[in-house]
Design a protein that fits this description.
The protein is α/β, with parallel strands linked by helices. It is built from 20 helices and 11 strands. Strand 1 and strand 2 form a beta hairpin. Helix 1 runs antiparallel to helix 6, helix 4 crosses helix 6 and helix 8 packs parallel to helix 17.
């Protein structure tokens, strides 16, 4: 959790960009990502130099070697050392701008083969319009302490939150407390291989990584497990280069060295190399779109023939998961009760061919102010052999924030997470901890819950009998308060008395007027 002072420093950097002429929040985020990448290269070189000094051994393949960097035949070369953050940050504004624009950005692109994140820097361009704004940005970032991994991650997350608060491109950010709930429910393991086929800013992958660090810290001390964590565990697809840069930087600042974040239109390519490649899928894919059959991956159309993106993504998840793999994904409510053949067939497959574990119905305001659509979290396990006995439902009414466009927190920060300890009164404002606790006993105590409760289980036979309708309203029962009424004769006598009083009132009024 970052302090108010740190937030103020970040706000100041952000405001400098806006007042300096860059009003698109994604462009601000992209330029900050470039600068943080450059700063990170310098920090990496400094660590290598310190280690070389301690051990007396030379640096193997230094990031900033001795000699001169020459971006092209027409540009005068400049010592590599001049391209380091700790050097150019002390230059005058005009000199700094020239070094960063003519040398640092071309150098960044030249390093594009070093890691997944560096690869996404290949198309990097400096769009900061003036030397004065670049100086403010460099000074502002330099003043923000980002020495440890937790602070780096928190700072970047706070910057990302400003994309949403700016009122644009909020579709790229799933609320972090909803992501946390989904990650806690799926409980990632050190052996997992995790995929988000619509990764955006990589919020799901970051949260899964933090869960592993918190709950399986000892496993990461093993060299094999550590290598898997840094290079093989996290996979994300996106077809927006800006998102690839931002998402991979997000993971890097959260301590994942080389995640596999790649350019891919998930629905428009065959997935032969990824079929049954992942043990966990976490995603919030795009809703309400449609594709032509010609532009849709043929392997997905073999699962279900439809043009609707939300259904195609479900088919994709089933293709990507290995047997025994599990998923927690957000879907629009229409997926749960849609009447088309494709809707019904996908639901039938989840229930009959795999194991549908649970459905969390979310309040319609969760994605405001960007969308008011009602959604749900779908939790399932790929088995290829059935396994659904009961489906667990939870009717989540409150997520700790107001459900209007402002999304104002209703509780203190430490009470807004999915793992917070809450009183009964606080539970009424944040159902996430209760949903998580009940999910964990869905196979025992939850089986005894009545369908009038917030959560309950429904046998597979009931779901099949309802045409595989998965809408919670199909199964939830409403409690009607018992009301005791007076005997009819008592009511008639009361009405007669009332009528007599009215008539007497009218007669008294006439007497007064006479």
């Amino acid at each position: 959790m970052i302090t108010g002072e740190l937030k103020s420093r970040i706000d100041a950097v952000w405001n400098d960009f806006w007042s300096g002429g860059i009003s698109n929040p994604l462009e601000v985020m992209e330029q900050l990502t470039y600068l943080l990448f450059i700063k990170g290269l310098d920090e990496q070189q400094t660590r290598a130099e310190n280690q070389a000094q301690r051990t007396g051994k030379p640096i193997i393949d230094p990031l900033f070697p001795a000699g001169t960097f020459k971006p092209d035949d027409n540009t005068v070369g400049r010592p590599y050392d001049d391209l380091r953050w700790t050097r150019f940050k002390n230059l005058a504004a005009q000199d700094m701008y020239e070094v960063v624009d003519r040398y640092v950005f071309p150098f960044m692109q030249a390093r594009a083969a070093d890691s997944t994140h560096a690869t996404h820097m290949k198309g990097a361009r400096l769009t900061i319009p003036t030397p004065a704004l670049l100086l403010k940005a460099v000074d502002g970032l330099d003043a923000i302490p980002m020495q440890d991994r937790d602070t780096k991650g928190d700072v970047y997350e706070y910057m990302l939150s400003k994309i949403a608060s700016a009122g644009q491109n909020g579709q790229f950010r799933t609320p972090r407390h909803i992501i946390q709930l989904m990650v806690e429910m799926t409980a990632p393991r050190p052996s997992d291989t995790i995929c988000d086929p619509a990764s955006g800013t990589c919020g799901f992958l970051v949260a899964a990584g933090e869960y592993i660090r918190t709950n399986h810290e000892a496993a990461l001390l093993d060299p094999v497990q550590s290598k898997h964590f840094h290079e093989g565990m996290f996979h994300g697809y996106d077809f927006d280069n800006t998102m690839l840069r931002i998402g991979s930087m997000n993971l890097q600042l959260h301590g994942v060295q080389n995640p596999q974040i790649v350019y891919r239109d998930s629905l428009a390519q065959d997935h032969a190399g990824d079929i049954e490649g992942y043990s966990l899928v976490l995603a919030n894919p795009p809703f309400a779109g449609s594709l032509d059959y010609e532009s849709t991956a043929k392997d997905l159309l073999q699962v279900v023939k439809t043009k609707k993106t939300e259904l195609l993504f479900l088919a994709l998840f089933l293709r990507l998961l290995k047997p025994g793999g599990r998923a927690a994904v957000i879907v629009p409510d229409g997926v749960l009760f849609g009447s088309s053949n494709a809707h019904k067939e996908l639901r039938r497959m989840l229930v009959e061919d795999h194991k549908l574990d649970g459905i969390v119905s979310l309040p319609s305001g969760v994605f405001k102010p960007y969308a008011g659509v009602s959604t749900a979290i779908l939790l399932f396990t790929k088995t290829n052999s059935g396994g659904t006995d009961h489906v667990w439902f939870y009717d989540l009414q409150a997520d700790g924030r107001s459900l209007d466009d402002k999304r104002t927190p209703l509780l203190p920060d430490d009470k807004l997470s999915a793992t917070a300890e809450l009183t009964d009164d606080e539970h009424a404002k944040n159902n996430l901890p209760d949903a998580l606790a009940r999910w964990r006993v869905r196979g025992t105590a939850e089986l005894q819950r009545a369908r009038t409760d917030e959560s309950f289980c429904v046998p597979k036979a009931d779901i099949a009998a309802n045409g595989y309708d998965l809408s919670i309203n199909r199964y939830k029962e409403i409690v009607h308060d018992d009301v005791e009424y007076e005997h009819p004769q008592v009511i008639l006598d009361d009405l007669a008395q009332l009528e007599a009083e009215i008539q007497q009132g009218i007669q008294d009024l006439k007497t007064m007027l006479a």
